[in-house]
Amino acid sequence: MMKPLHNYVLLTRLNEESKTAGGIIIPDNAKEKPSRGRVVAVGDGVYEHGARVPMTVKVGDAVLFAKWASSANEVKIDGTDYVLIKESDILGILE
Question: How do strand 36-42 and strand 8-13 relate by DSSP bridges?
């Protein structure tokens, strides 16, 4: 596994529904990449004005992140796909 640095978060994507609200099944090649993920690892936070700002998200949280996040990097570790993203590109924690 890997530990992200500073304010980076390591996520696995959560699968989106393959059927619309009207019951239409979406084929795999027409699906967009999910913008939901599960937090796998978090960095320690960033330093601002000499003090560390702690991370808001924690391991195990389900989150919604920006679909076109500028900081999002897709990485493969030990054969598993992950998204490495800055915490500021996470829009919210799903409950």
Answer: antiparallel
